[in-house]
Amino acid sequence: MNGLRSVTLWTTNLEETESFYKDVLGLNTLLNKDTNILHVGDADLAPGTRLIFKQYLGESESLDTHFYGIALRVPTDFALYEYKQQFDKYEVTYESVQQLNGKHMFKFYDNNGHAFHIISDELNSGVPLGTAYDNGPISPIHQIQGIGPVMIKSPETQATGSLLKNIFELQLLAEYKTIEDEATLVFQIGAGGNGGELHLVDHSEPIESLNPPIERVAFSIDDLEHFENIVNHVKEIEMEHHIIQHEAGLISLFIRDITGIIITITYDTVN
Fold first, then answer.
1. What separation in angstroms does the CA of 237 have from each of 22, 174, 231?
2. Which of 143, 25, 7 is nearest to 69 (CA)?
3. Cβ atoms of 162 and 232 closer than 8 Å
4. Is the dihedral of CA 149, 222, 158, 239 positive or negative?
5. What is the pLDDT of residues 74-92, one digit of tens each?
6. Burial of 213 (0-12, 13-18, 19+ CB in 10 A)
7. Which of 52, 6, 48, 67 is nearest to 200 (CA)?
């Protein structure tokens, strides 16, 4: 298991979202207007750095989310200060610096209202950062270069936790409580660290999923035998799933959790 691969979120305005992530956060973007999908990430839009936004075309004015928060990784503690200056310039509201497992971070919301954290990799180990994007407003040495930890909400933590541990074979690493006193399970993916952790937050309220679903969290794996074992297990217990063969050397298993979020594992020999 390599680590986190990507996170897929909804947006009501693709152009506005592209502007926020490119002009404010300084990230590389690729907008496909034919499919209404925006890719955001490092210089190479590489796995482990990638956010994917899909256009919401429904009529609801109040949209729910399965994500408690998504951390965006920067190389140093000082990079948090540079992003604070950037947010002041663009009048983006952010909260005070806190610590998560000894790593400094602060919370903000994007133009869609999704909760994010800028988190320092200065004391981090495990899944490495990506490649800085040279054409943004943030200095490459301070720039966001990865995603993680990813924090998802579930009112059914026992069922979701069982899926992560027994089907996707993630390692249960630790437990803690959020500031709101919500119990949280930490699952390690691959080498772990910021880019290899999924946090499962016990959320008391039911989550209203979009139909068709949009939100998704994806992991990467480079061991074909391990991937096939997971697929065979899913088939043996007759769990509903989808398998998509992309290009050569890339195949994904999709499972929809009981809460509605889609969890994906991708066998990848390319990246």
1. 44, 28, 10
2. 7
3. no
4. positive
5. 999 999 999 999 999 999 9
6. middle
7. 67
Grouping H, G, I as helix, E, B as strand and the rest as coil, residue 233 is helix
Q: Which of 142, 26, 13 is nearest to 90 (CA)?
A: 26
Q: What are the structure tokens assigned to 247, written together? A: 């290009």
- β 50-55/3-11 pair status: parallel
The vertex-252 CA angle with 246 and 257, nearest 5°, equals 140
Tokens found for residue 219: 């992991």
pLDDT category of residue 269 using cuts at 50, 70 and 90: confident
Concatenated DSSP letters for 52-68? EEEE--S--SS---SEE
Helix/strand number for the chain, H first, E second:
4, 16
Name residues whose C-beta falls within 8 Å of residue 189's C-beta, 6 or more positions apart in sequence: 1, 2, 3, 4, 127, 170, 196, 197, 198, 219
State the pTM of this model: 0.96
User: Which residues, in sequence order, are bridge partners of residue 221?
Assistant: 267
